Amino acid sequence: MEAYLDNAATTRVCDAAADAALRMMRECYGNPSSLHRMGASSARELAQAREAAAGLLGCQGECICFTSGGSEANNLAVFGAANAKIRRGRKLVTTAAEHSSVSAAMKRLEETGWTVAWVRPGPSGGIDPQAVADAVDGETTLVSMMMVNNETGARFPVERAAQLIHAKNPQTLIHCDGVQAFGKLPLKVARTEIDLMSVSGHKICAPKGSGALYIRRGVRILPLIYGGGQERGLRSGTESLPMIAAFGAACGQLAGQVQKNLAHAQELKAHLLKRVEQIPGVQVNSPDDGSPYIINLSVPGYRSETMLHFLESRGVYVSSGSACSKGASSPVLAAMGLPPAVIDSALRVSLIYDTTPGQIDRFADALEEGIASVAH
Question: Which of 63, 166, 218, 227 is deepest in the core (most CB within 10 A)?
Fold first, then answer.
């Protein structure tokens, strides 16, 4: 039995999502914008998927703009807010632990004259909401702060930060990268002061190429893509109905299951921590109160890439950090102030709803074997 424990990178597509995509490609293939019967049928499927995504996110369907995934949603939020600034200045605030699709967008805006304040995480990976609010001033257009860190699982206090920020500057927009929280933590985004939230399908057992941006009623951003005016003019181009329907099906599968799945993940994390505590030399980098779906650990003296290949030879699949980094040293762990030996040996174990204790045991056994046999 293989142990796939790289679910923060991507997940296996669930049967309901795969079936929905195939049905759209073979049976319901009309353009949702067409005025004939087949177009109307596709438009209904599009609306149903929108409501399913909104239900899982805790908002109304009209607040959902479908995208190709989390990275596009993050870019649409950051650039869209910057381009639409009204009576606001040219300052942005973010954290030094964001996903690259946010940090790279921020750096690009920095190159074009924007000022960006970068709030660093603490040694445990968390972010002080007051520090984020303190970085905001009357010129701040946007604050972007993720909800769950994709490398450590640290939970960032976005809702509290949003309250502090809006008390200081009500005009500042709050964007949250919710990719690693969506479908895994209970969300009621419409009840928060978050203005924009990005989510992705392939982290919740939908296909790659599906995602969405939540946009609070009354919030104005400008599109990145112009043309046919789909998605209320925010994302032109014929909607990829197979991917969107599959995304909606995956959301539907999670309706009413988030709390149960979360409890399962917490049990698995506790089991993993118990196992690795018995292995000399292992250091856990994730905070105790982080998302149980992501656990980051290190074995100083053993390079991540070397250990990854050993684990793969034993049928165990994890990563050394964000899949988008392609093996590069983690800027998140560096921002936490961890020493190079810890950063260079970091492994990310990430779980999903059907992860089993047996897979956790397989990882722990293989890790222990790797420490005993892999050269320093």
Answer: 63
Q: Determine contact, residues 121/154, Cβ cutoff 8 Å.
A: yes
List, in sequence order, every residue forming a beta bridge with 319; answer none if it has no partner.
348
- How many CB atoms are located within 10 Å of the residue 111 CB? 8
| DSSP secondary structure string for all residues of 333-352 | HHHTT--HHHHTTEEEEE--
Q: Could you tell me what percentage of the chain is helix, strand and coil, using 3-state DSSP and rounding each to the nearest 5?
A: 40, 15, 45
The tens-digit pLDDT sequence of the chain (376 residues) is 799 999 999 999 999 999 999 999 999 999 999 999 999 999 999 999 999 999 999 999 999 999 999 999 999 999 999 999 755 689 999 999 999 999 999 999 999 999 999 999 999 999 999 999 999 999 999 999 999 999 999 999 999 999 999 999 999 999 999 999 999 999 999 999 999 999 999 999 999 999 999 999 999 999 999 999 999 999 999 999 999 999 999 999 999 999 999 999 999 999 999 999 999 999 999 999 999 999 999 999 999 999 999 999 999 999 986 555 555 678 999 999 999 999 999 999 999 999 999 999 999 999 999 999 876 6
Q: pTM of the prediction?
A: 0.95
As annotated, the active-site residues are: 324
Q: Rounded to whole angstroms, what are the CA distances from 184 to 10, 89, 167? A: 14, 35, 29
Nearest to 9 by CA among 53, 69, 67, 50: 69
